[in-house]
Design brief:
The chain contains 32 helices and 6 strands. By secondary structure, it is mainly α. It has a two-stranded antiparallel ribbon. The chain has a two-stranded antiparallel sheet with strand order 3-6. The two termini are 16 Å apart.
Length: 684
């Protein structure tokens, strides 16, 4: 805390003047804290309460009412866990087995487990890593006051069955699967797919079933939202295969699209043989121009009547567009309604410039998997289903190995194989036996990845104080504790929101059912007027008017105060999430956690400064309710850092409050100071 004290010695007057200039710490803001140095009498407390009540009426809070009001209903249902004694015993046994692997390795090298987390450190870690946010003041107090010996496992269970877990792991998968509302500008509407991903996490769908559904789905986005995975790389059959193998098998074969892989064993012919399994994937999209595509393509799929109507409607829309009666978005809406995924077996040929002696240019390749064979149960299926069956099969250990390694990194900060998508012969695991054991665990649990996370969270290794990991070091990281990491952009946003919003679920992203009701058009019968009216309704609700509607519900000073998982994506370049490294959702797992100057400026005087000290914010109300400086200081520390202040920190905080122009300014400076500490930004 020396750094904090020195920083405040220099900055506190500047900070107070800055806050005063933006209207947050005016004379009326003294209601933030009417603190006495000694405990007030009953008469003084009553007078203070009357003063607070009068000041809280004038001026009113500028925070949205939906955000200030606590939610009385769960955000959405989440599948329960097995919390029986037998279930807990199974978790403890599995966690102990992982610790045993690590302890044997540590013993050989003469090292020991990291320092165990105390209860305050644990409650902060578990909320951040399983729920994606810091704990609220009442959650910290509740946990630390409990005496039950099982309270840590109980809290892990509670979080894993909560909307917080769903939101946090949705963010994790959104970065991997490149989820954004409009991946190709306007033609695709991905909200149904994004909602499906979120609901799959909430329902705890087994991982192998989840992936299989994405790889084999047919239909429209609103009737079968899982087709979104295949549409994400629409028109790019070779990158689709590359991305799929990279995400779900942890292997990069992309170089082999153009030539034999220079650093791995994959050949160009092997790449094309694998791609031949999925090359028949199609999405019908009415273009209205080509004789071979558009209406002809729809007719080939047995949709003659709809194709004829769509062709006529397209011509009317084009004419209206020329006359500036409608925008191009209306034509894109027609294309959206004529987009669906299906599979037709199609031969794939080697490229025209193929130059290796194991094939000839433009020779038809025979489909084949990279290793092993297609499971018998899928031998008679179409090629795409064969590919999905092979990739997700229980005896394809690399599928289980890749997700075990990816989730181990998610929890411990470093993978057993790094990077997580570069499994190759020259990149061996740090602890091969442990990786194989974790792979066995994924298989034993039948790809219940939430249960797998539950096991890791119960290990002694995970429940140890974080240690510094130097990625450039030649020494392997041996997991005596998780690696010290800064919060992700989404964790930071959701943690800030926890300090502001009583209801962080004031808005949730639309469901597939809602999108279908607004977007689906009967292409067999729809006429021009009906179609344009339908498009206008959709555009008002989910097009140009979408962000405005959300802002009216939860907007404050150019920000929308809802969970990161519910925000429209991509966010603007100047948004808090972008500044702190949220992925662009154009490339796989593009989120970063490096420091930048805009981050510093945002934390010094960005939206957080405004919202924390606004009437009705969580931390504002919690501090206002305190009756002494000591209680206020403890409230601030436990709200932001999930721990009590030390005696030295309390003395410095009191000095800050005493030296400030008003108690409100002093408390504002203390809040500001703690938010800008490494202790807040990093997960210890």
């Amino acid at each position: 805390m020396t750094d904090l004290h020195e920083r405040h010695t220099v900055w506190r007057h500047t900070v107070w003047v800055t806050l005063l200039s933006i209207g947050l710490l005016t004379a009326s803001s003294a209601s933030l804290l009417s603190l006495a140095k000694a405990a007030p009498s009953a008469a003084q407390r009553a007078a203070m309460a009357r003063k607070r009540a009068s000041l809280q009426k004038d001026p009113p809070s500028r925070l949205p009412e939906a955000v200030r009001g606590g939610s009385t209903q769960p955000a959405f249902p989440v599948a329960p866990l097995d919390t029986s004694a037998a279930g807990h015993e199974a978790v403890a046994t599995a966690a102990a087995a992982i610790d045993s692997f690590l302890q044997r390795e540590w013993k050989q090298l003469g090292i020991t487990r990291g320092t165990p987390l105390d209860n305050e450190q644990f409650v902060r870690r578990v909320y951040l890593e399983l729920g994606g946010r810091i704990p609220r003041l009442e959650e910290v107090r509740s946990f630390t006051h409990q005496q039950r010996s099982t309270k840590r496992q109980d809290l892990i269970d509670k979080l894993l069955a909560s909307p917080d877990y769903v939101s946090h792991f949705y963010n994790f998968w959104a970065d991997i699967l490149r989820l954004k509302e409009r991946p190709d500008k306007q033609t695709l509407v991905f909200e149904p797919y994004m909602d499906w991903v979120k609901q799959s996490i909430a329902q705890n769908t087994p991982y192998d079933e989840w992936v299989f559904a994405m790889l084999t789905a047919d239909g429209t986005l609103w009737d079968n939202p899982a087709v979104g995975y295949q549409l994400r790389d629409r028109g790019m059959p070779l990158p689709y295969v590359d991305n799929t193998v990279r995400v779900f098998l942890g292997v990069q074969i992309g170089c082999a699209q153009c030539h034999d892989h220079p650093f791995d064993r994959w050949t160009q012919k092997e790449f094309y043989e694998l791609a031949a399994l999925t090359s028949g994937t199609r999405d019908r999209q009415f273009q209205g121009r080509s004789k071979k595509g558009g209406a002809m393509g729809m007719q080939m799929m047995g949709m003659q009547a709809g194709a004829a109507n769509a062709k006529g409607l397209f011509q009317e829309l084009q004419e209206a567009r020329k006359n500036r009666e409608i925008p191009v978005a209306a034509i894109q809406f027609l294309r959206l309604n004529n987009t669906a995924v299906n599979f037709q077996q199609t031969n794939l040929k080697l490229p025209h410039d193929y130059q290796y002696d194991n094939g000839k240019p433009e020779e038809v390749v025979q489909p084949s998997v990279l290793w092993g064979k297609v499971p018998e149960e899928f031998a008679a299926s179409d090629r795409r289903t064969q590919f999905a069956g092979w990739l997700t099969a229980h005896d394809n250990r690399q599928f289980a190995r890749a997700i075990a390694n990816r989730l181990w990194k998610k929890m411990m900060g470093v993978g057993l194989v790094e990077p997580v998508d570069e499994f190759q012969e020259g990149n061996m695991p740090v602890l091969p036996e442990l990786l194989e054991h974790l792979t066995d665990e994924v298989l034993r649990l039948d790809f219940d990845i939430r249960e797998f996370i539950r096991v890791i969270a119960a290990t002694d290794a995970w429940q140890s104080q974080a240690v510094v990991y130097d990625a450039s070091s030649t020494e392997p990281f041996l997991f005596t504790a998780p690696a010290l990491r800064r919060m992700t952009a989404e964790q930071l946003w959701d943690s800030m929101l926890t300090l502001v919003a009583k209801n962080e679920w004031a808005f949730q992203r639309p469901t597939a059912k809602e999108i279908k009701a607004a977007a689906e058009v009967d292409m067999l019968t729809v006429g021009y007027d009906e179609f344009v009216e339908k498009w206008q309704v959709f555009n008002d609700k989910f097009g140009r008017g979408y962000r405005k509607q959300i802002y009216q519900i939860a907007g404050y000073k150019d920000q929308i105060l809802v969970r990161a998982s519910e925000l429209p994506t991509p966010v603007p370049a100047n948004h808090f999430l972008s500044q702190f490294g949220m992925g662009d959702r154009d490339s796989i797992q593009s989120g970063v956690q490096s420091a930048t100057v805009p981050q510093v400026l945002t934390m010094f005087n960005g939206w957080t400064t405004h919202t924390m000290l606004e009437r009705g914010s969580v931390i504002y109300d919690n501090v206002v309710d305190q009756e002494s400086a000591d209680h206020a200081i403890e409230t601030i520390f436990r709200s932001i850092l999930a721990r009590r202040p030390t005696l030295g920190e309390t003395r410095m905080a009191k000095a800050e409050i005493d030296d400030a122009e008003t108690p409100a300014a002093g408390c504002g400076n203390l809040i500001w100071g703690l938010l800008n500490t490494r202790e807040f930004m990093f997960i210890q």
